Fold these 3 entries.
Entry 1:
Amino acid sequence: MDKRAFVLLLSFSTIALAAPNLHEPARKLAPLISSELDSSDVQFLATAAESESTEIKLGELAATRAVTAEVKSFGESIARDHNEANAELQKLAEKKGVPILKTATAAQKSAANKLSKFTGPKFDKAYMDEVIQSHQKQIGEFERAAHSSDPDIKSFAEKVLPALNEHLLLAKKLTGMAARPSTSPNFRANVMDRAPE
């Protein structure tokens, strides 16, 4: 068997072995994906897709379950912004030939189940704590991706980073207000005007 035939056979074997595990997060399959991207960029796309989906799901949950107007509005904003970023991410992954999951992972379901156990002000606090923690992690991932050698990955990361930073800033400011009632329909102005620096 010549070398080319052996490599082809090995590639098909690897795909066949991976097939039963397609329900796993795409990041676990990143080393098996044939793409023009290096493995760190493939990993970024998979991780970002999972993060975006989680933020959307939890934002929608907060929009319906939060007790303060600011947290409800913040959840709506998070879901909307991450939905937009996720749509761009899906197109980018498709362009790069990187399959990413479009269904909820076990981690996403776990985060939603964890939050669902809380009600009232405890829900608001738990949601805001989750947003702060997840956005700190996302910002680190997007900052690394902003130095990618791939211009499309770099551009996407640079475009999304300001929104992630704004979400984190607002979440930190809003955390201290989560249990206070609101009179303002504009949560961003309300948070920026009332919360201490």
Note: The longest helix spans residues 69-96.
Entry 2:
Amino acid sequence: MTTPITGWAMGSKGSMPQPRPSKRSTRSNLSCNRSNRLSFLWFGNSSLAPALFWSLLIAPPSAPAVTQESGSSPSFRHPFPLGPLGGSAEAVADSCEAIVTAVAADAPAARAGLQPGDRIVAAQGQPFERFSASIDVADAGPPEAIGRAIEACERAPIDRKLRLAVRRGETELALEFELPIAGDFADGLCRQVVATQRADGSWGAPTGQTADRFITGLLALTLLAHDGDAHLPVIRKAVAYLVGPDGKCLLPDDFTPGPGGLDNWPLLTTAFLLAEMRIATGDESLEAPLQRLCDAFAARMRPDGKMGHTDELSYGGNGFNAINTQVHLAWALGRLAGCTIHEAAWQKSLELIQASTGENGGVRYWTLETGYADASARTGSMAAALALAGREPALARRMAGYLVTHTKRMREAHAMGSIGMIYGTFALKLLSAEGWRTHFDEWSWYLTLMRQPDGSAAYLGSKGNNGGDHYLGDANIAAAIAGLMLATREERLRLCGGTRAGWLPVATPLLDAAQIAGAATRAAR
């Protein structure tokens, strides 16, 4: 059940719920027919233009995104990190084992004697259930069981020893891992983010400027959500990079595409950051570039409400609902930050999304019947936008109901499971306190496996196409996923259930007069 929309934030404040023991599945294993990752692509391939590369990665399927069938796919392999043990493994469809693929030097796994090629078959004396390629069971089997066993050990007041049963060739071994008390994951991943910022204020991605800008917006937002005062100098540099010396956000005055290609994506995360910073600091200098972005999104929309990766429509004129739903989120935040939003554009895009939303509350790729298996990012971003705007409460509740019902699909968002987890968590925090708690309960093992021995974040992808996430850099997007999910406990950002304004005062404006004037410049389209 979802709670009614009664205000800006309906999620209850407090600590993250404790995880519950894994439930053993009694139903038949299912499988999906999508490849786990685009391992054949080299993400630094200079012969493939970044814009073309990105469009190939997130191009729509020609059929429903995921097909589920009875049986299994034994060739399906799912990589996952081993969390604070230090290392990585693979789960294989229809197998009850996890195959160790790497062991980090001087980490608990190495000290316990774990080796690449070992097969982990049980944790704390409990054999694993069979792993399935189905998206409806998340990572039930070895990954989830190992994550939950680590959680239980870390919470134990004494005897924090993890015991794994391992097969090495024909030999069966019992390995024991001494685990320290878990530190604050948010602190560790923020250290990771701060340490990897480049001199120009950006974070580097493997495939060029569009990805650099997109991930810079997300990582700066992560720092703002966690002790923004301590991270303010780093965030200032990121804002300066994204806005640019002329204040125009690399957006031409006629709102045609800027450099890098597919620029709606980085313009969106820039808008999220500027809006949250404007609300947090009260800094009026941020309003001009934020208004520029809100106006550009409206100008780029077609008369029928469709949008694409840039000002051009994507995919044979069908548009791309994932852009529309994120634009609504930028507009909702922009209005809270003091911007004027084009009501006609909001309404026209809303009509498109309403026509694309099923009775189950999931938002499809287009208005066409493309299915809901990868709907979490579209549904989450639109539900969060409606909650923040205080509009269409019945539709917002229906969307939240989809996210609650299909929380185990949250990581399935076509090529970018990251934004499925991020936007889905935001939406549940804003719309359903019970749904948010259930979501964290279901996915606590996931955050545990992402948390490395040094406190940094490692990537744990979806069961489908992770190409868009790889495009951003695995370590970068892992920090953003974990950081923004955990931020919903802090309730600082409006996206995370916060209600206060001016909670991060700044002594001097972030932008100068020239940047403000440049941001306000317009040209006829």
Note: The chain has a mean pLDDT of 87.
Entry 3:
Amino acid sequence: MERRTDAADGQAYTYDEIAAFYKSKYKPSEVKAYWEEEMKPKGKGKGKGKISKELEAKPKAKAKAKAKGKGKGKERGPANPKRFINEEAMIVQDCIDGLIWSTPNLARLDAYPDVKVVYRTDWKKDKVAVISGGGAGHEPMHGGFVGSGMLTAAVSGETFASPSIDAVLAGIIQVTGPKGCLLVIKNYTGDRLNFSLAAQRARSIYGLEVETVITKDDVATSAERGIAGTLFVHKVAGAMSEEGKSLSEVKREAEKVIESTASLGVSLSVVRRLKAESIGIKKMEVGLGIHGEPGARTEDLSSAKHVVEVLMEGIEAGRREKKQPEAADGYICLVNNLGSVPPQEMCIIVSALMKSKWGSSVKLLIGPAGMCTSLDMNGVSISLLPITPQLKSWITAPTACAAWPAAVMPEFPEAAKPSIKDCFEGVVASSDDAIKAMIERGCKALVDKKIFLDELDSKVGDADCGSTMSKASTGVLQDLGRLPLADPKATCACLSDVLAKTMGGSSGVLLSIMFMGMASHFAGSQNSWQDAGGKAFMAGLQAMMDAGGASEGSRTMLDALVPAAKALADGKSLSEAAAAAASGAEATKTMVPRAGRSENVPESAWRGNADPGAQAGQIFFAALAE
């Protein structure tokens, strides 16, 4: 990710930072001109290029950029400042206390605020203790992985800040017995210094046997930071401890895991609870650090498939550069949510991974889950560890840590065919020109009014009434040639099925119930549109009301459909039924909602606007009466 320096103030910025800062003040062409002709590549000196006419037209741009670099520009706070906290100074302590309340066999040292150590209460000091830690903000790492089969204790600093030497030392003393202790340290300067010095003091002052290992799985930059791949070390060391292995054995295998692990992440945002957004709306940053450190580069936002390609190709390149051993038998793969990616999108990432050319090499899958997060960073990382029978045994060994997802052997069983009978099965298409013409007119009218109904629904609902009605109408028109139009009962049964499949939402279900109710009425009386159509329509609406709980006067589609049905049941014409539907829809403009989309919106939103569902019913009947 290129940074360019302003020679006048010596401050370096990325193009995205400059563009985000000026987007509400200057045209993109003017910002680009400033970047190209005034901002010099970092380390290239301060030679001046020729200033464009566009830039000269905005002489204040450079001065504002200098002010920003000196901290005198517009203050930009966190992009997402809303937080569920009490006091800023108590965030980490409150988080740890909440973890202890909700986790069996967990306690903390009574030394707040300087010492924040979580430890196992069921620990007997008869095996090798495994301790890790670092800055807070990566939850559930580290405290969430304290438990049988993983960590014995975790030491926390403040958010994104290393714990103190005394805090680490207190954790070592609390859980270390005759078998010794292994400290798992992530490769950050503060963690390395504080954990290493605490280990030295534990040895020299307290006579404890303490060893250290340093994780460095991030292949994004030469910094070799410790990120989500650290969890492989936690799991293997914890499982070995449970087996009673010696400290030297645990350390040796932990170092093998470290030397074989590679991780890489992609993020669509910074840590928005702490920082102003600097990643462009259509950009993603590859290798952004878990504390918000700069990544390797910024790329255009793309599909989940491409994100997987970027991650896997980057990990492959990193493994080659580090000369890591070949994965002859495939990988253990950990898919990590960096904080705020919805579960839906995490599953899409896994799907893209398993369908990619790398999918067959994934022999054990851990996640997707938030394991090593960066508060609310909108990103994902993948960690790979070559699998061996022994590593598989340790990774799949039992643990009491709820935050550790089960490692599974990914498989995709053959999809079973649905056994639901198709409504057209055994049905012979037949014609009734009058009915066909009415269905065509009604459905086409709803398709034509899609935008109108969506706009009306945007005032009182979720702006999709027109889209829903249009989709349903299109589905009916597509199957019109297959319908047994001369058989009212069979036609209504088929329409019920078509709407249930194509329409979606509560409206689709309710209209499907209505047509099935009509089919049932036709089965028990004359199977004739002319003789029983009106009463069948009323019976269908009654079935809808019984299922949905609404009725005429609730400000729903029923306020147009029920008056129309009553008119038809009384032997009145389609024109009279259409007029009744129009009157009912108009009445909803002042009708207090008792059900449906308007029930939970303020009166100022619905008063004066017809209910979209009732309006759709009026449109349909107006088209029938043409």
Note: The chain has four domains: 3-69, 90-260, 262-389, 433-624.
